[in-house]
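Workshop exercise sheet. Pairs work together: one partner reads the sequence aloud, the other fills in the structure field after running the prediction. Swap roles for the next sheet.
Pair: D.N. / O.F.
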Amino acid sequence: MIVRRLLVFTLAAVLLLLPSCKTTEVKDPLMDRIDSFLAVDPNSRELFHVVMMSDRYLIAQMQHPDRIQRNDDSGGDKYMTEELKKFDKIDEEREGVIAVWLYPDSGRLMKVRPKKLTYLMEIDKLIVEDIQRWSFQFPKKDVYPTQFDVRYRVILRKTLSDDEIMKEVRDKIIEKTGSR
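Structure field:
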């Protein structure tokens, strides 16, 4: 009987104290930065914002969703993330801006030019290659806008140890020179 009362008392105490035990949710600062970057802002200077990482490719359209839409290309997006894995040798976050011109009659890409570089040559080249595979549709049947910018945020994350990176570099040198 005493044991039963003790159990009931303990259970009641736990139930009363449970609401006061709050678990704090730990927010990932990287995800906060990504969410902020992709938040739709109609006053943005760019039409699209793109986040490229070795494990995800995210796009947000800032303006004119009723006039222009990027055609989905999940295979191409996946290919770009795979290509980015080659550069996950450092922890780095860079932004670049690409200017895009479309043909006013077809809406196909006419010209793609880097406007703001990331200053990582290989990454800048990859961004231009990425934008060149894009295609669009125009729900109102007229091509607008014909000129716009796309802001990229490329996030590299070091996935290998320094020794593994050095071994990889040595192997590439040996492969190119054909000697040890």
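Discussion prompt: The chain has five helices and seven strands. What would you look at next?
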